Every structure is written in structure tokens, then in C-alpha cells.
Task: structure prediction
Amino acid sequence: MVKYKVSKKWLHVTTTAAIFLCLIFLYSSTALAESPPDREMNGIHYKTTLANGFYTAGIDFPAGEYDVKIISQNAEVTFYDKSGNSMKAYSYNPETKLHEFINLSDDCYIKVINGSVELSSTNISGVPQQPRNQKIKKSYKLQSGTFLSGKDFSPGTYDITAMGKKVSGTFSTNEPKKEIRASMNARNQTYKNIYLSKGMQLKLETLSVKLTPSK
Result:
């Protein structure tokens, strides 16, 4: 039998080298685990279509970076920051249909009129959406005229739906920062999340509508 001698010096060197390599591996693994994931690796895919009304980031859809596409003819979309200042406004373009990238943080909101838009993202915040602050439960039916929030109906956020077989008319509000004037017809019979605080007006022109508390 052939016996090999291993010097203590060589054994010390190899042991030290092995320990050093182990430390490098552990450090690299920890660094990878703690480093923030990039957009491509951690992208959370999300896609939704929003029709007529107001929609708030963090409530109606997750906050994040979005590609916005107008998909209805005559549609108009306006983006607002959390203070209610208009950031951008667009209308339908049959050639491009608009592809706009925009960052919508919590409490930023969108107003859509006369159609619908598509939001898609691979980089949403991942923060859970919050429920709408909604206390009202009663619905109301109103016919053409001017109505006062707090007198003719409870203040709150409503989905407004036109009633009747032939729908043709307009509605408007004077709510600060969420004012709206829009036509209602067979294609656009419902507007969602219309906020009316106490003292604000809802004006209906040749319309009968139902106000339903928004979810």
C-alpha cells in the first residue's frame, strides 16, 4: 500500500481557501437576496379597462406605472394628481389610439368621458387596494332638473345610470376638482364613482337617472 504524506502547511492552506470560498458564496447569496429586484424580474402584470367615470389609484386600481390606451371613439381621458391638478389630457386618435406611459401613485385619479381606456402595467406597487370610504347605502331616482347634495340625496360617491328605452341627454356637476359634464346615450348609459359633497349640484338635462352608491 502506498502512503501519502500531507504536510500541515498544505492542509492549512487548503482549509483556509475552502473557508474563504464559502464566505464569498454566502455573501453573494445574501447580497442577491437583499438587493431590490429590477422591473423585469419583479414585474407584477396587471390589466384593466375603465369606462366612463372617475377612478382612483389605490382604490379602483393599484398604484403603479401604466401604459394607457384609449380604445373608444370620442373618448376623452384626463389624469389628475392627488391634489386634483390636471397632469395630462387626451382624446381618441384613430391612428395611434394613444399609448401613453404615466406613473399613478396612490390618490391620483383618472376621469374618463364618452368611452373607455385600457390600463396595463408590469410594474404596479403591489400594495393592497383600499376600500372606498362609502357610508351611504340608499339609491335615488331623479328626473330632469337641478338637485342639491345633502337636500335631494345624501352626499357621497355614486354610479349614475340613465333610465328609459331612449337615452339622450347630459348631466353635470359643480364638484370642485371633480367637476364633470357628459352626454348620456345608448352607448354611454353609466358613469361610475361620481363624487358629490354636501351643497354641490347635480344637473340633469332631458334625463331620468338612478344614483347607486359606488362600490
Notes: The chain is about 15% helix and 45% strand. The two ends are 85 Å apart (CA to CA). Helices lie at 8-34, 39-42.
